[in-house]
Predict the structure of IS110 family transposase.
Amino acid sequence: MSKSITQDMKYSQSLMKNAEKNCVSRASRKYNKSRSYIYFWKARWDGSVESLANYALDHWIDLKRYAPEPETRKMLKTYHRQYGQYLKLKVSLKTNLITLLDEVFPGANTLFTSAPRKSDGHEKWVDFAVKFWHRECVCGGSEAAFAKRYQKWCQKHGYRFSEQKALQIYEIASSHPNTLPKAEDTKRLITYAVNQLTSITETLSSIQNEMLSLASVLPKFPVVMGMFGMGETLGPQLMAEIGNIERFERKQSLVAFAGVDAPAYQSGTFESQKRHISKRGSPRLPKTFFQVMNTILQHAPADDPVYQFLDRKRAEGKHYYVYMTAGANKFLRIYYGTVKAYLRQLDC
């Protein structure tokens, strides 16, 4: 342990000397540290290695005692990280399938607008591509013959049948040309692509169900899921990344951890009016919050304070990223106060 502490102190000493010799900006780029971090330690450095350790020694009584993360929260966070990795694979596989379908059945991925099935995550157009993998599978016969085959397929896979939809599909298949022939090799390529996408979709659905199951045992689960914008996907994701709310002493600490705060930027008499978010803390939370803000904007609940705030900023002519970030900031503050109050009631 003493060896690692000494190495850390030597590293900090080297950083301070570099900042003293050159400048803070150059040291920040070389050591990949923020300027605020360097200024923090530079104010405490008197030229000796010991001074870099004195801050922790002087304030040890005020520092929070380390507590290991509970097993449930740790597993929930791990599931969320895996969910993100598999989601990237799904996007890649879906793009690949659409590219192949554009050569055999252009527009097949836009035939249906129904949401993915909750039980296994299957999408109708993907299942449709297994049976009707080429446009000639649709328009190779009469409209009545296809409508009958389509109806049997819908009954077999549990989808709703519409005769009007069948005629629309037939019309699209008849009017779009293909570049790859209707052959066994082509069918094999489509089948491989569909099977890979289906497999990753089912895996994502299973992970999502596990995340929901793990999150449901957390004390804050009812109050978080009761907030507008929280669903079976975003709710567990948010709880996984934020973790224990008790480790944040103030709401500003939670906002900073989420990386959606606007840091001060001032030098002498110059003060910037256009600042970017700090992006410190969790790199995954900003994405989750943007999804939550999109959900709130799409549903537009008139009595929701976050939506009222977003709508007001949007009406003021603020840039999209400005009011979305400000909305995420406000949502976090409400989240902090609501969850804190709920947990306090449970302790009483």
In short: The two ends are 41 Å apart (CA to CA). The chain is about 65% helix and 0% strand.
